[in-house]
Amino acid sequence: MVWKTWTSSNYSSQPSVPRVCAEPRPMQQGNVIAVVGNSVAGRVSRDGRKEHVERLARINDEILAYNLDGRLALMRDRKNDRQFDRFIAMPFTKGVTERESGRTLVILGSNAHHIEAMQGQFNGVVWTGKDIDETKKYGSTIRWINVGNTREGFIGLDYNPLSARDAGTATSMKDVSFLARTLIGYGYDKNKKLYLLNPPYITEREEGKSLRARGFQTIKDYMELKE
Fold this sequence. Notes:
The chain is α+β, with helices and mostly antiparallel strands. The protein has helices at 61-65, 114-117, 173-185, 206-213, 219-223, and strands spanning 32-36, 52-55, 92-98, 104-108, 125-127, 136-138, 141-148, 153-158, 193-197.
């Protein structure tokens, strides 16, 4: 599969298969939760009615490897930055973290988009479905992707200081620093790489390039970054 971004309507280079989405599930308790589906014939779930939300104690390598059963891995795409080719074949996982609370959801064994998985789990989330005037509001959350495990690979997050607060993106270095601290607290190695990305493909933002040139490369570096 070709993973380009976490915001487009089609993550794969293969023909899109419509998902059957479930009604919003009751809010699961806990600071770390997951939407979990079962892989069938080596493919991730495409049916929201067969997925459930469960509480996690923390994020570890076993959890992040779960998606490999459904062949969710980073693959080369000509519109991605070439620097990311070195991460090819590592597992690919989507996540979202709420500002202030740190409540975090990861998507396992499912091809659900962030907005689908978030239904019923975060305040302020609005999704009208795939209507002509589709509306997506992500509440006070920051979407991110994980490639690899808790140490290898990278965390990528959409950073745009001009975005609306409910667009699901980091809008300040305070947001980035908060997310970095939160992920370390939930099990990530402090030396894992972190990139500020500019979807719809995996391309690094100019702000990220500038910060990386100044030595900001890991989760720990961004955790300590000041405005």
